[in-house]
Amino acid sequence: MTAYVALLRAVNVGGTGKLPMADLKAMCEAAGLAQVRTYIASGNVVFTSDESEATVRAMIEAPLATYAGKPVGVLIRSAAEMADILAANPFPDRPGNRTVALFTDAPIGQEAIDAARNVDGEEMRLGTRVIYISYGDGMADSRLLIPAAKVGTTRNMNTVAKLTEMASALA
């Protein structure tokens, strides 16, 4: 069994995409995933499965589309990948609530950072299927726009650390 983390896009954010985590857990269990746990109400699920990343994504996306009436993006990482993302954080000494990982499905290159607009003090670094962003004084006043975010999802490094811990406990 592989331990995975599923990161849902646009769930319980800004009053849209409401999905009770108990319902998400039940959907994942009904889809055949094991040891399902959720973390905070922003669409984070850890679980185990013998299936591939692509298969577990499809197993989660199908019931979510039925529930929401539209496709809901799901990004999948193994416990090992999450640990690597956490360890590779280029801003480890900065507050975890002001540093995020922007997860993407496909590998991305420097052009993803070069396409960013309204950069005003934020620092960005590439990882594997992730862009690390340090917001310095915080995200509240940031106007940073990263086109890759339209198909990705972000989690602050505190959340990444907790999901890594939860998934590693299942591995």
Description:
There is one protein chain. With 171 residues, the chain is α+β, with helices and mostly antiparallel strands. 32% of the residues lie in helices and 24% in strands. The protein contains five helices and eight strands, in the order E-H-E-E-H-E-H-E-H-E-E-E-H. The strands form two sheets. The chain has a four-stranded antiparallel β-sheet, sandwiched between helices. A four-stranded antiparallel β-sheet has the order 6-7-5-8.
Output the keywords.
171 residues, alpha+beta, Alpha-Beta Plaits, 2 domains
Summarize the structure.
The chain is 32% helix and 24% strand. The protein has 171 residues and is α+β, with helices and mostly antiparallel strands. It has two domains: 2-79, 2-Layer Sandwich (Alpha-Beta Plaits); 81-158.
Which structural class should the secondary elements be placed in?
Answer: alpha+beta
Biggest beta sheet summary:
4 strands, antiparallel
CATH homologous superfamily name of the largest domain? SP0830-like domains
The figure for the number of domains is 2
Strand-residue proportion: 15-25%
Cα shape: globular
Task: Describe how the helices and strands are arranged.
Layout: E1 2-8, H1 21-30, E2 34-38, E3 44-49, H2 53-68, E4 74-78, H3 79-87, E5 99-103, H4 110-114, E6 123-126, E7 130-134, E8 153-156, H5 157-170
Antiparallel strand pairs: 1-3, 1-4, 2-3, 5-7, 5-8, 6-7
Helix pairs in contact: 3-5
